[in-house]
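Researcher: Here's a chain I'd like modeled. Treat it as a single chain, no partners, no ligands.
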Amino acid sequence: MANRPHRSCPPLRAVVTRVSALIGASSLAEKSLTVTALSSSAEGVLVLRVVGEVDLATVEQLRGHLHQHLAGAHRGVVLDCTAVSFLAACGIGLLVEIADQARADGRPLRLVAHSRLVLRALEVTGTNELVPCPATVVEAVAQCST
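Model: Modeled as a single isolated chain. Structure tokens:
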């Protein structure tokens, strides 16, 4: 093998710019995430159904919705993420932030997910130890109301 000069990697900003150009600004804007407050079978337990992908394009939208809903007087909070297909690292960070807030407020927080990608992200980062993940929304609501 010939000795080749070391070729340095481009700065991260250049990489992000190139990726954005390849993806196209319109596709980033088209990503959507919905958060819906649902009625629960237990008085005072808030169920928030999250639908979509949680990534850099949607995490701030989700953060706004969560903080808006968590400002209310609820005994517990269930995040129904059964319709979340992807959870990026920024979404994990948001979950930790929300878990810390819930713990400081003295209310239980539960997360329900079925996607293997989402569950694996929670397992690998240890977030499932911080935010318990029951199998169903009904089970999560029951855990929050006791």
